[in-house]
Design brief:
Blueprint lengths: L3 E3 L5 H13 L3 E5 L5 H12 L3 E4 L5 E4 L11 E3 L4 H12 L4 E5 L2 H4 L4 H9 L3 E5 L2 E5 L9 E3 L5 H9 L6 E5 L6 H15 L4 E4 L2 E4 L8 E3 L4 H14 L2 E4 L10 H10 L2 E3 L3 E4 L10 E2 L7 H8 L6 E4 L11 H11 L2 E6 L2 E6 L7 E3 L5 H13 L3 E3 L12 H6 L3
Parallel strand pairs: 1-14, 2-13, 5-6, 9-10, 17-18, 21-22
Antiparallel strand pairs: 2-4, 3-4, 6-8, 7-8, 10-12, 11-12, 14-16, 15-16, 18-20, 19-20
Amino acid sequence: MGTVSIDLPGCKSVSQRALLLAALATGSSHLAGLSASDDTRFLRAALAALGVHFHSQADGRVRVDGAAGLPLSACTELHLGAGGSTLRFLLPLVARQNRQVRLFAAPGLMARPHTALVELLQGHGAHVETLPDGFLVHGQSLRLPSPTLVPVGLSSQFFSGLMMTSGAAAQSWQLDGLPVSPGYLEMTVALLRQFRGAACVAMEGLLWHQSGGFGVRQNLEIPADSSAALFFAVAAALVDATISFTRAVSPLHPDAYALRFLEEAGFVQRGKRSFTGTAPPASVREAFDLALSPDSGPAMAVLAASHTSGIRFENAGRLRHKESDRVEGMARLALACGGEMMHQGESLWIRAVASKPPQTLFDPAADHRLAMAAGVAALRWPGIHVMNPAVVAKSFPDFWNQLDLLR
């Protein structure tokens, strides 16, 4: 197989942050290469319902006419789909507004942990009622002290949403411990500094200071999604191929750690915008830290199940609170690939045990990353078939068309 060129989507995480910051800024921002994912689409639709104006340009860019602060639409309902970041970014925004808004969320999203953010908002004056299919929010009296104690042990998205919607006044934040997925917070801070100035956020250990203001318009080129790139880098390792990408991959995304791991462990050789599968290493000495790249677990499980010595994973506990229980999903992926998973506490070990796995109809449990990982696995083990393949639209609608280029 020669070099295969893959068209990656725009980074979903950067796209959502850029959309929200552009919506609150002064002036009209232009965003190129936005993600076409369902999560991004729902966030954009919700911001439009709140009164932000978006204009699709002939060159593919999107113009965002910033509201120079909080949007003032009389909207009373927002539909959020299944996006965790969509909900966690919009809850604090809506809680700051003097009206009642009903937020509708998909069942899978409501099953994820949100109590910490809800209790923080309720504790400072917002009325937030949790319903079976969403939330009812009336934020007329939200008053955040400075500093505000912020829970960061389950999700960094809570804190990202609070920072991006912090308002015109300066604010200090006291983190209640070391944040999970710190790469997502680094991404948030980088984009805040782009819109609001290099000095807008300063850190003193767990005490963070943020200047007031909503920022000014920006022209941004959204990089390619590192999470999407990882699936194809793993594919390169599984089928000994060279895969190139048509656009640069985001260095800000936490899954950039997973891409570095593949290279440093010896599974791939990395070029400027390409990955080439190499002879797999005899053993993998370093454990893979899932706290640094939590969304990469399913793809890395498939790779581990192809290797006789396997890969050790650390800090897996948080994966039970994603779109599905991904620890259980990784175990099923390993089994489908002829491997096995052993675990003790938050540590996992996945390795190959059978050269020819049985025919498998894999259920991704409505989880886009489990579905994509199983699709990549099927390149190596064609007996794997994926149920409900359309769930990939949550992050990468064109995934199956791009994967077919490797068949």
